[in-house]
Every structure is written in C-alpha cells, then in structure tokens.
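Narrative summary of target 7.
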Amino acid sequence: MAEGAPAPAFSLPRDGGGSASLADYAGRKLVLFFYPRADTPGCTREAIDFTRLSSAFADAGAAVLGISADTVKAQESFRDKHQLSVPLISDEQHDMLEAYGAWGEKSMYGRTFMGIIRTTVLIGADGRIARIWRNVRVDGHADEVLAAALAI
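Modeled conformation, tokenized:
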C-alpha cells in the first residue's frame, strides 16, 4: 500500500450494528485511524481527539472511522464510556489491518510479537490513498490529519 494507490476495499461490522465499507464513502474523503486496543490510554486520547474534531472533518468533506481488532461489543463499550461519535469498526480477523499495513511486528520490553501498529490513512474523494501516517504519536495527530484533509 502506497500513497496514490487505490484504497483497499473493506466491509466489516461496526458499533451499533450493521457494517461499514469503503463503498459507503465513495466520492468523499475518508480518514481511517487504526488503534491497538479500545479503552487503553493512548487509544482513548486518540479517539477522543478525532471525536472532538468530527464536525471540522465533516466541514472538510471527510468522514472518520476508527478500526481495531476488538470485538463489536468492546467497541460499543469504548464508545459509550467515552462518548465517542466516530464509528468504530471491528476487524477481528485482521484482513483490513493487513491490507492497510497496520498489522505487523512490534516489540515491547524486549519481546517481539504481532500486533496493531498505530496507523492513520487519508483517502481522497477519488478513492486513492492521499496520505499515510505510520507509528503515530497521539498528541496533536488528529489536528495534523485534519489539516491534511483540508489540503486535498
């Protein structure tokens, strides 16, 4: 996956029932933020930041989706606990995570394991990847993504 390439298609279950797919957002900008685990400190700050800016993203013509490997039930608990307004997608099989390069080798305390790499992808209204952020640092990130969405 690279900037300028067509965004990989997806269709996965989301919080509140139903599903979300790339086709649902055809002709619109779309921000996908991949986070390691619902209701952990960094992921909570990131989701709250995207929620805080959700109307600004809408004004920029961009939708925002959060994705992790958590179950739909865990996503709903996370959403309710923190009053999140961005849709949360569940990718328990890691298909979308792998397609978008957000699943890979990580290390912590000298131990190596497979997991979600905090990644954000901005898809243009043309369905192509406009920008990719890998190994995201949470503080100020949502604002940076909003600026990029406004610029395309």
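The longest helix spans residues 41-52.
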